[in-house]
Structure formats: structure tokens, C-alpha cells
## 1
Amino acid sequence: MTTSLGKTGIWQISAQLDPELAAEVEKLGYGTIWLGGSPPADLAIAEQLLDATRRITVATGIVNIWSAAPGPVAESFHRINAKHPGRFVLGIGAGHREMNDDYRKPYQALVDYLDVLDAAGVAQSQRVLAALGPKVLELARDRAAGAHPYLTTPGHTRHARAILGDTLLAPEQKVVVDTDPQRARETGRDIVGRYLQLANYTRNLERHGFTAEDVTPPGSDRLVDALALHGTPEQIARGIDAHLQAGADHVAVQVLGDPLPGYRALAAALR
């Protein structure tokens, strides 16, 4: 990858992002802003955040191939990259069978989507794939700059690194900046439990050490503690570092609860 992500970035639903927050997290030293929630093909929010900042990278985490056609996405990529050279990364993914009515052969659909991006001149070095299982991790290695796994643990990071070789690995990690374990788990479980309705996530978690009981909604304490780290900023930073030690190049940190105070509290510990 030719674009610098830094060691840590923030991951936030696009609707919760604005230019003021972008400018603040840039000042705090984060390297990348990841746009969650399947932003539309015009990628206007990415452009707005780049316009409001000077050096931070903006990445999509991810554009959903079922809701954003590749032609318009490629046009948006070139518009943004011409205005902010090297500061934008296009993350794409196949979403979830349970949430997309026209879901079909997701692997082949990803390949077809990448073919259109190639034909439109979207640089492989500035795109990543949402990847969990071996087959899509291999696709991320061969047809993109790397992978952006979501809802994973350092164990999955270690597994993904073995497949990806030297290509980029940038997992997402949820955190709750709260030293009260019960309250922090409630915050984490409220979000984590929503993803346990999606088979691709539960299958992946079971492949990497969790039981069927762990992944049954709303999730066991063990699962929630792993997927939504909690504690002091220093304790959370050690959990983030576990991904880096397992082979991640970058970790996209998603603060649950009130995001900006959390990112402020974590900034020094993550440096």
C-alpha cells in the first residue's frame, strides 16, 4: 500500500462523522478515519472529511458492493484522489446475506466488482477488502492492497497474516473506555449482540476459538470482553497492541458510547 494509515485510526459510522470530529482526531494523532455504515457511491462524506483535514487518511470500511455500483464508485475514487492525492483508501465488501435481498455468490460478485474497478483504473494499492475467511483473504492479497477484517480478535489477525503475506492487514477493534466491568459489558454487548445475527461473523468466531454458546445472542461475557475491550486507556492500548503483535499493520479503533471523549482519552496511550 502506498498510502500511510499510521498504527491506529478511528472507525465510525459515517452518519456520526463530521468535519469537526475529523479535524479533532487528526490533531490527536490518529492516522486514518474509517467510514462505516456502507457509505453511498458518491463518497461525499469522505471528500468532506478530507477537505476539513490536512494529512489524515480517509478509508471506507466498507462500501457495500450490493448497494454501490462499481462504475460510480470508481468515478468518486478518481474525483477524490485527484483532489487529495494518496489520502483516500477504498474499502469494499460483500456485506451480509441477511441484509441484502439480491445477495448471490459473494465471492464471484467481489471478483466481478474488482474487474470493473481495474478497468476503470482504480489503483490496487489504494483499495482493501473486508475479509474474514481464507478465500477472501487470498483475494485481498492478490487483487487489493490487503484486508480490513471486522469483529475479530488477535487470533484471527495471526491467521490472516499467515495468508496475506506482506500485504496490509488492518483489523477493526471495538473498545469501551470504562473501568466498571458490568457497565462496560452492557455497552459492548448492546453492539456486539447485533452482529451475532449474521452468520458470516458467527462462523468466523467459531473458527477462531469461540463456542456456539459464546456466539448465541446476545453473546457470552468471554466473547463480549474480547470483541469490545474495556478498562483504562492503558489497558485498552495493550489489547490494541495484541493485534499489532499478532501481525496487524494498523488497527481501526471503534469507541462505543460517546466517541470523541473516548478517542481523546485513548490518544496518549495509543501513541
Note: The radius of gyration is 17 Å.
## 2
Amino acid sequence: MSSLRVLSVASEMFPLIKTGGLADVTGALPAALESHGVQTCTLLPGYPAVLRALTDTQRMAVWPDFFGGGARLLQARFEGRDLLVLDAPHLYAREGNPYLGPDGHDWPDNAERFAALSFAAARVAWGQAGVEPPQVIHAHDWQAALTPAYLHYLGEGLPRPRQVLTVHNLAFQGRFDRKVFGRLGLPMGAFTSEGLEYHGDVGFLKTGLLLADAITAVSPGYADEVRTSQGGMGLDGILRWRAEAVTGIVNGIDTEVWNPRTDAHLAARYDEDHLDARRHNRRAVEQHFGLLPEDEGLLLCMISRMADQKGTDLVLDALDALLKGGTRLVVLGSGDRELEARWRSAADHYRGRLGVQVGYDERVSHLMQGGCDAIVIPSRFEPCGLTQLCGLRYGCVPIVAHVGGLADTVIDANDAALRAGVATGLHLRSVNHEGLVNGVNKATQLHADRPTWQRLQRAGMLSDVGWEASAARYAALYRRGVGQ
């Protein structure tokens, strides 16, 4: 099997820079692809956190006037990963969140910042960056979705690699006022309904969906949902029109990073045959969140962006019903400022039964998965989700909405699945107050039956949540595109 060169283009990658699941995917997939003969190099923006982490870089190209300032393309390796970094201080030399300013609002020049990333990818593809051009470009989400546009509108007579665009969340589309178009370096002929124009604005993701050779969604269920008027976020017409180009490939997690047998973040390590050791992690969770000790009741967790999509407001509104009969809840996440304030207030009101940490902490997230009984994920829609995969891996039973990748990856504990011993979690019958409370009540009943609950945990821990199967599908998709 011949080697295949792929350039992954992304706005974040774990462990260098992370705001959500996109970083976990772009961080883990390259290593999984290696066994399939795919060599991946990842192009990232030169955020301060990225540049600080790289101790040995090589300058490959200098672009003096690049979207309003000078830029360099750096080559590096980090923890076995091949990287290209677009070092453009006028665009990326900003601490904190890569997309938001200190006021919590989008940076006003985000269109230029991520158009620059896409144009840099195109220049790599054209052999204008001092590195060997890729055979395939894999662009992730709206931040990289203009890559096909630069290749299409500016690439006449130049190399054109196969282009794959992955949609991690269709709700984030990169839509900007039309006045930004003149700053993107594209010809006026690109501002049409067949190009960048989207209801009078500029649509980054819309353009990528039109022009990429192949489109993937991050689960089969989500691939179906985005082609419906309810789940398509206004882009369902394009996705139906391009249906033959759309594939659903479920995400995985890095099973070395997420491994309860070896996880240094845990108070006690364990496997599916030594579940009793989880009690030490349970105590550590209680201490960290200031919970009142409780040996028997269900200990729930939620690790989530605080946003309408994630249904965190549903949990807030149901706290009276959820926190009874010994049930407790710990929450880790950030997002909407109003929701953050409501969660802080709730933690004061339910002190000892509810613990809340606003923000994200990798160590605490591992500890919660290793010590809590169940993780609740009541998303209104969910392209794939990763926290349920971590929950399965750690014996933290997922309680999930029956949507997208959640439904694809968690086997509901209905009577037939329980009898067959294949159930790995619980599906909410409806994503509302009643459905959430009923789902948690069922979990409480199952948890009281220790042998049944441990069968659920073991089945989840033995399920395949890694990247191997999905990496094989990506490799096959790449190779079909280049005729291998």
C-alpha cells in the first residue's frame, strides 16, 4: 500500500489548543491514520499557546503582505505530530480563546483570520510553501472551509489536491457581512450563489459544502439529520443536492489518553474487572466539588459547553426533581454568560448536592468520568459528541438524547438490550423536562440494582470507542479520491 500525503487544516488541535471536540479529533486522527499508510501534516494558526509549545521550528516560507501584515509558515514536530504553523502576529497573537475577545464576542476580524488559514493551505497545495504538496486536503469546519474556494478560483494551472470537508457542527457556519468579501483576495466572480454569497452575506461553510470534493459529517446519524429542514440549519438544500458526496463517519477518542488503567489524572486506576476501585475517584470528586458524602445515591456529572444546543438549561430547570433521593450532580463547563451565572447561583442554592466549576479543566474532566456513576448529555442536537465515548470507556454510564452521534454510539438499556447484555447507556425518550427526569429516574432504578449497573458499565468499557474503524473509513475515502 503506497503512502498518502494529507494536509489537515484546522483552527485547533489537542493538546496545543482546545475549546471543544474539534481539537480532540484533529489531535487523535492523524496517529490512527498512520497504520493505513496515511501521513498527515496539520496546518494550524500561530496562536501564542501553539508557538510557546514548539521548541524547534523551521521557517519554510515568508509572505510579507498576508491579509494585512507579514506572515511566516513554520514547520515543526510536536509529540510525534507533523505540523505547519501560520505565524501571523497581526491575526493570531492574542491570548485566550482563539475565536472570542475578552468581552466574550467574536474577534471582529475573524473572517480575515480564518480566510488566511485557508489561503495558506492553498499555497501549500500549490507548492508555494517550501514543503511537498499534499495529495489530499482535509479541511475542518468553517474556519478551514474557504480552502476549496481558493483552490477553485485562484488555482488555474496549479496542482489541485482532493478536498475533503468535515462538518463538526453545522450550527457554526462562518457567516459574515458582505463587506468582508473585498478583504479575502478572491475575484468578484466568486461572490455569487454558486460561490461565497449566502443570502447577501459571505458564507464560509456554505462555500466549502458547494466546492469540496467530499463532505463528511461526524456520525452517520448526523449525516442524515443535516439533510433535513429541521437539522440542516438552512444548508439542508445544498446537502441534499450534494447527497452523493456526503458520508457519516463517527468520531473516536484517543484510547491512550482516555484509559482508566493508566490515567494519571485519577485518584485510583481500574479496569472493567476492578470497578470497585472507582470509589476512590468518587471520593476525590466529592472533595473537589465540596459535596456531602453519600455512599448509595446516584452521582451524576455533566461536562459540557453551556449553550442552548447542549440542553444545559433543561438540567437547570429540572434540578428540584433531579436532586432527590440521594442523587447528586457535578458540572464542568463554560459558555453562555447567563447560563454560567445561573449555574453558579444554583450551586449556592443546592450546596452539598450540586457542585459547579465554570471553565474547562482536563484533569477534572478525567476525574469526573472516573468517579461519577453516569454522565448526562441532553443535547437538542449533537453531531457526534465525545464525552459519551469517554463515559463508556470509564464506566460512567451515558444518559443521552436520542440524536445524532449520541444515538449512534450508545446502546439504550431497553428490556431486550438488557436481557442480551449489550446495553451501554440510556436514551432519553424526549429532550424536555419530562424526558430528562424520566431518564434519570430510570438510571436511579438501574443503579440500585448493582449487578445490572455493573453489566452496563462493563459493556460500555468493552465497546469500541477508538479511532481504528473510523480511520480506516477516512483512509478509504482519501484513496478513492486520488484513484488509489
Note: The CA atoms of residues 54 and 360 lie 23 Å apart.
